[in-house]
UniProtKB/TrEMBL annotation:
Residues 108-131 are annotated as: Disordered. One of its GO terms (molecular function) is GTPase activator activity. SUPFAM superfamilies: Ypt/Rab-GAP domain of gyp1p. Residues 65-296 form the Rab-GAP TBC domain. It comes from the Eukaryota. Residues 111-131 have a biased composition (Polar residues). This is Rab-GAP TBC domain-containing protein. Transmembrane segments: none annotated. It comes from Fraxinus pennsylvanica. Pfam families: RabGAP-TBC. InterPro entries: Rab-GAP-TBC_dom, Rab-GAP_TBC_sf.
Amino acid sequence: MFFSAATEELDSYFPIRPECQADVPKTRFKARVGKTLSPRRWHAAFSEDGHLDIAGVLRRIQRGGIHPTVKGVVWEFLLGCFDPNSTFEERNEVRQKRSGKIITSPIISDDGQSIQDPSNSCSTPHDNGALSSDGTLDKRVIQWKLSLHQIGLDVVRTDRALVFYENEANQAKLWDVLAVYIWMDNDIGYVQGMNDICSPMVILLEHEADAFWCFERAMRRLRENFRSNASSMGVQTQLGTLAQIIKAIDPKLHQHLEELDGGEYLFAIRMLMVLFRREFSFVDGLYLWEVMWAMEYNPNIYSLYEKSSDPNSSSTHKNDEAKVNSKMLKQYGKFERKNVQTGWKDQRGALAVFLAASVLETKNKRLLKEAQGLDDVVQILGEITGNLDAKKALHEALKIHKKYLKAKKP
């Protein structure tokens, strides 16, 4: 039952509204026996007291993704919400600490006064000096409340082809998670596109608190892409890395793009900002993310995030292990493992950047032959929507990663 060859079986977990069927990309991913992480295999990966065989789980995910029935709980480990070396009891304690009260309890009352709850792990406006001496709201609270309007506009547009969001309670759940997140990460605040990253967590995880922490961990990787000011965008850092990669592995294509005034690679912004959500069907997008996260997995991710609990610190995977033995290496994803083995520490080069490079390489001949301007580049790359095979694209991304590391050797 869990491994029907028909993709309709998987699509049934995330039903599409009938009137939208013709407008959504075709799903290519299929759950396969012996490759996809099944519910049975997932539960068997735990020891009696709850320790998780993360190495075995990573191998299975990298071969065939995760079955929809266990995606959410597996993502919590991939994104660093929990330590695989913890026990069931220890993880329950973590869940208790991350109480759903941070989502469901109001931060301010209807009349704008601070609401204090000592059990609430999310700081209130009062805790952060949000109220001035006369009790009025400061700029931070005002900015937060102004952002809520934009969140409301984006929530009703998010994944609207899915039956899930016909329910206003589910829209409210997405709104809640985004609203609390931007209060905690007021440095960057809310930026369009965060809703696309958050939506799958809200769909996959029943409890708002679990969805929130899963999203918060995902944003640890992505938040700098959303930082912007009058002169620059955060995603430009990754675009710069993309330019370096193409220049190293395909100098002819890079030169051609530069001649078209496309050397800044701005045409790839959407791919990197929302991790290819728009290029794939919903099911294929989830498959792409989980395989990427499995390939990038670092066994130290949980401790790194817990040591730096402030979202403004932007903790990322740090390859600072002096020596990693072969047993420990098995607990790394294959992409991160290669980085550790080669000593490559450029954290701007996430797998998503190499995935974008693989997309460019698949269109190499057409770009060189047909692109006479940036509009042509955008049109050619736009044709990948619904026509990109996630598994093949990831395979090509790893090949490009290996080629790039070799080219960068002194």
